[in-house]
Amino acid sequence: MSHRHPRDRTVPVVLVAGHLGVGKSSLVNHLLRHADGTRIGVVVNDFGALGIDAMLVAGQADSVTSLANGCLCCTTDADGLSDLLADLTAPATGLDLVVVEASGLAEPRELVRLLLAPTDPHAVYGGLVVVLDAADPDLEQARLADLAVVNGLDRVDDPDAALATVRAVAAGAVVGTRHGALDPALLVDPVSRPKPAQLGLDELLREVDGPHAHDEAQSVSFSSEQPVDPGRLAAFLEAGPAGVVRAKGVVRLAGDGELWEVQTVGTAIRVRPAPVRAATSGARLVLIGTGLDEAGLIQALEGCVAGADDPEPTEHAALALTRYA
């Protein structure tokens, strides 16, 4: 996919919710320690509530704190969130991802509604991530999640059973973690930037701590020279394919022939007209997640490709997918 002009650049805003003590702090700290060139903005009520690793904090000015790995941390309340997100996602900041820790700001549903409202052209909803305790998961919260993170698998006797319990009710993707170690690639594309002469604090901390492995994200690529049926592709994405956390790519729709850029996190889908240079006659998609069934996913996507024997698409057929624009 081609690069857009900086003015057209959008930044995914991910909401992280969950009960006290489930591992939200560990998850955010893990993202910051493993940013590897990806610049992350973190929005919290106060630093004590989230517990951003003190070693990563370089200095504080008003409500914005610079982190030593090129990321930013901000404090706000729910009333100030819209303005702060507009500032953080402006092209001048160069951020690649914004993470909002939801507890204390507002109910997750309220924040989701706020982010889905088109208040800022650069901030796009990146999904609701709910962190759950593997020993006692809140299944009501799991039902809300675009991505349910079942944390603390090292503290339960049967990790597979803990994951199965959540998968039975969750509409979105489900992944398991230990100590909040979620691979950042499950939320945002890694960004390659020039390395400074000295190691950053995130890299130094990893050298001190030693390896803190997370389950590496996997990817499955799909391409077709034929356009896709918008209804079948929308149904595939809405179903939350097993193991898939993110999907991205460009697709040409059967019928009107329009080209669309597709991004998903769990069952949170967003589409927009694709840039001209991303032109394809059919589809190019990448699915990212853990424990992926490559053959099964390819077969399912092949089933979304429009066939010669398909009935002629109706006038409004594209709305099955483009309603997520």
UniProtKB/TrEMBL annotation:
Stretches of the chain forming a coiled coil according to its record: none
Domain of life, source organism: Bacteria
Keywords, in A-Z order: Chaperone, Hydrolase, Nucleotide-binding
Occurrences of domain CobW C-terminal (ranges): 217-305
InterPro entries tied to this protein: CobW-likC_sf, CobW-like_C, CobW/HypB/UreG_nucleotide-bd, P-loop_NTPase, Zinc-reg_GTPase_activator
Catalytic activity: GTP + H2O = GDP + phosphate + H(+)
PANTHER family recorded: COBW DOMAIN-CONTAINING PROTEIN, COBW-RELATED
Family of this protein: Belongs to the SIMIBI class G3E GTPase family. ZNG1 subfamily.
Protein name: GTP-binding protein
The organism's taxonomic lineage, starting at the top: Bacteria, Bacillati, Actinomycetota, Actinomycetes, Pseudonocardiales
